[in-house]
Specification:
Number of strands: 5
Bound molecules: guanosine-5'-monophosphate, zinc ion
Helix content: 25-40%
CATH architecture: 2-Layer Sandwich
CATH class: Alpha Beta
Structural class: alpha+beta
Shape: globular
CATH topology: HIT family, subunit A
Length: about 110
């Protein structure tokens, strides 16, 4: 989609620190990391947010990819947090669905 920063990363038009790529999903480091480990997993097709998601296999792949990358990077055993923000109240700032994976430190609850 035009004017979507994550679609531009998928196309290679803007650089991303890519951790994993396959036919359907891409994982890359968050440019503004909120934890020692912070990456995003996105589908390669433009879907705006969780309200628009209907492909169960694709949504499952986002989560399984996050776990696999966390294992590869060595912080899965200690633990991590997966977050998907949706729209205004969820705090979503980029309208291309993405799963955050945050790790490498103790997380707190409740979230802000
Ligand atoms: P949201 O707030 O929508 O849940 O998360 C969007 C995330 O995308 C933020 O954590 C932000 O730091 C990250 N982000 C925004 N623009 C870019 C970019 O150009 N490159 C990368 N790697 N991450 C970005
Ligand atoms: Zn997009």
């Amino acid at each position: 989609m035009e004017n979507c920063i994550f679609c531009s990363i998928i196309k290679g038009d803007i650089p991303g620190d890519i951790l994993y790529s396959d036919d359907r999903v891409l994982a890359f480091k968050d440019v503004n990391a909120q934890a020692p480990e912070h990456f995003l997993v996105i589908p390669k097709e433009h879907i705006a947010n969780a309200n628009d998601a209907s492909d169960e296999a694709l949504m499952g792949r986002l989560s399984i990819t996050a776990a696999n990358v966390a294992k590869e990077r060595g912080f899965a055993e200690k633990g991590y947090r997966l977050v998907m923000n949706c729209n205004e109240y969820g705090g979503q700032t980029v309208s291309h669905i993405h799963l955050h994976c945050l790790g490498g430190r103790q997380m707190t609850w409740p979230p802000g």
